[in-house]
Fold this sequence. Notes:
Elements: H1 14-25, H2 27-30, H3 35-42, H4 46-55, H5 61-71, H6 77-87, H7 92-110, H8 113-125, E1 129-132, H9 138-150, E2 155-157, H10 165-169, E3 177-182, H11 188-200, E4 203-208, E5 221-224, H12 237-253, H13 255-271
Parallel strand pairs: 1-2, 1-3, 3-4, 4-5
Keywords: DNA-binding, Transcription, Transcription regulation
InterPro entries: Homeodomain-like_sf (IPR009057), HTH_RpiR (IPR000281), RpiR-like (IPR047640), RpiR-like_SIS (IPR035472), SIS_dom (IPR001347), SIS_dom_sf (IPR046348), WH-like_DNA-bd_sf (IPR036388)
Protein name: SIS domain-containing protein
Amino acid sequence: MHAESLWDGRTLTKGHQRIADYISKHMDDIVFMVEEDLAQACQVSISTVSRFWAVVGAKNLKEFKQRVKDEVLLSPSRKLQSAFEKVTDGTAAASHVMASADYLRQTAERLEQAGFEAAAGLLGTAGTVHIYGPGSAEGLAALMDFRLTRFGVPCRRLTRGGHELFDQLIHVRGEDAIVIFGFVSESPEMAVLLEFAKERGCRSLLITDLAVSGMLGQADVCLYTARGELWEFHSMVAPVAVIEALFAAVGKQREAQALHNGEELHRLRRQYRSVLPKNV
C-alpha cells in the first residue's frame, strides 16, 4: 500500500504538498518524528505542519501516526537501507556511491511496468518529442535528444523560459509529445506546458522526484525517480538510469529504423573519417 492513499483526492497547498511528499518517502520514520522535525525537514513553518493533519483527516500528529501504524506496513526497504549504511567503509566516496545505489532502489520500487511501457510508447510513436529540462535537468534533456534522434525520433528542446517559451510552443502539433523533467517543485513553465499539452491534444510525460504534486494528475504519464532530500546535493543517477531504460525500450520498438540509422552512421564515419576524425 502506498502512502499516497492517506490523502488521495484531497486538495493540498504547496506547503502541504511538500509535507505529503516527504511523508510518502519516509513512512518508516514519521512515527518517530515530532512536528518540529517535520517542519525542518520540509522547510515549512510549524503552523503549516499543524494545519496539515486536519487537511488529511486527522486530529493531530499523534492520530496520524496511529493511522500510519494501522494502515501501512513497515517496508523492508528500511532494513535494506540499514544494510547499505553498514556496508560503507566510512569514506566520503564509498558513502556517496551507496547513496546512489539507494536512489536506484527507491526508484525501482516505485517503477510500475504499465507506466514505463506507456512512457516508451509515447516516445516511440510521437511525431516530434519536445523536451523541457531546466537547470540541472538540462543534461538529461540533451541526453534524451541525442539518443532518440539516433533512433529516428525527431526531437526539439524547449530551452526558453518565461513568455519566450510561447515562441517554441507554436510548433507543437497534436501528434507530438512533451517531456517535462519536473524536479523539486512545479514552476510556472511546467504548469503552462501541462495545460498546453491538453489544449493542443498532444501527450505529456512527466519525469519527477516528487511523490506528491499537483503535476502528477496533469500529465498523461508520470515516472518517479529518487534524487535525495531537499537539503541534499541532488543525484542524477536514478533519472539517467530510468531514461536509459526508456531508450532501450524505444530502440526495440523502432528496431528496423534504429539498425538502419546505425549502419548509415557507420558508413558516414568511414567515408569522412579523414575530414572529421572521431576524437573519442
